[in-house]
Amino acid sequence: MCVLGVGLIGGSLMRALGPDRTFGWNRSAPTAVAATADGYDVSTDLADVLRRALERDALVVVGVPLPALDTVLGAVAEHAPGVALTDVISVKGPVLDAVRRHGLAARFVGGHPMAGTAHSGWEAGEADLFRGATWLVAADDDADPDTWARVAAMATDCGSRLVSASSTEHDGAVARISHVGHVLAESLALTGQRGADLALALAAGSFRDGTRVASTAPDLVRAICEPNRDALLGVLDEVLTDLTAAREALAAGGSLGPLIDEGHRARLAYEQAQVEREAVVIRPGAPGWLDALRAAGAQGRPVSLAD
Hints:
Elements: E1 2-4, H1 8-17, E2 23-25, H2 29-37, E3 42-43, H3 46-56, E4 60-62, H4 69-79, E5 85-87, H5 93-101, E6 111-113, E7 134-137, H6 145-157, E8 161-163, H7 167-193, H8 196-202, H9 205-210, H10 218-225, H11 229-253, H12 259-273, E9 280-282, H13 289-298, E10 303-305
Parallel strand pairs: 1-2, 1-4, 2-3, 4-5, 7-8, 9-10
Antiparallel strand pairs: 6-7
Helix pairs in contact: 3-4, 7-11
């Protein structure tokens, strides 16, 4: 594996797979030096790293923030055209569009490990970050079966559970379960701060848990959420409608209305969905394999590679 960008996710991927299976690149020299000191082959020479990836037919994993994606893909197109390619970026539609613009779609399959912390950088990486996590491996119409299998095998080697869906379906889902959570965490943190020292002194578990991701670096939150603008706008409209209805019910009759009961039922549904379900076995390239992947994803079922 050739990892481009060895921050929290890319660095954790290298640690999970080990130094014998990975090499990589990072724009920041201090980060490359730190990774090298830890025994990993990380360079600041992108062209050289990409030429090595092409020579070895390595699976190239793009782990840079979305604003840096075009620059990195331009280098891939120049120095390693035709290389097998995936990514670990938190939004899939814009990545797929960029890959197609650069003429790299023939061997590209998008990916997104649903794991992370509020910290960033090489030092924040963890070898077990992906163990037990869900890893989305995209099932877009032009997905290459061989690359899909390689990405799925990589995720499995990291201890992850495989789920598949199209890039559009992924972006709609993560707007609901990830991106809106960042926005609400920021709002809740700001609400607590407005209560000054007393409110913050009284804050306990619900405030701590509800604001955890607000400790993420603001630039990283913007890079995660803002590229998913269209899907996030729709979800925010739903949230505002729910909160407005609850406020109006409280003002009119002293009750928060149906929000509390419906929210409780929704949480129980989430807990029930965490029960492990039987995986759908997929043979990449077989007739109807992409339809089978998308159908399994719509049902929330994991997938596994056929032997």
